[in-house]
Amino acid sequence: MSKTMLVVDDSATMRKIITRTIRKAGLPVADEILEAGDGNEALQKIEGKPVDIILCDINMPGMGGLDFVKKARTNEANKNTKIVMISTESAEGLIASVKADGADGYVTKPFTPETIQKELAPYLQ
Fold first, then answer.
1. Residue 32 to residue 39: CA distance in whole angstroms
2. Other C-beta atoms within 10 Å of 74: how many?
3. How many domains does the chain have?
4. Can you tell me the distance from the alpha carbon of 123 to that of 117, in angstroms, rounded to the nearest whole number?
5. Which has fewest Cβ within 10 Å: 34, 47, 93, 119?
6. Nearest-CA neighbor of 39 among 16, 15, 71, 17?
7. The domain that contains 13 carries what CATH number?
8. 10-residue block means of pLDDT along the chain (125 residues)?
9. φ and ψ at 93, to 5 degrees?
């Protein structure tokens, strides 16, 4: 069964690249992949329609990814939603901090369909 997904990034181009890469990776996601331009928009999207997995950038204007993860995890409806950060930031301390705040995984940009497949497949079972 296909899973619902939300891609959160302030760059519309990057959202399209992520979506295209997910499709190339052959992951079992729904035909429509939801998109949001920042954490505030993402919170609105998941409030009205819970999703199975969220891919979220860290550095965004408005509400960034770090604050988004914390806020998303305070809502009981998102308890089982998998949140994977996808960013150019690669410092191990930052990655550990984001995971401690509630992110399930982390993908560093740039990425390939193979990287996306490897990192996301466990969350789409």
1. 19
2. 8
3. 1
4. 10
5. 93
6. 71
7. 3.40.50.2300
8. 92 96 92 94 88 95 94 88 93 91 94 94 88
9. -65, -40
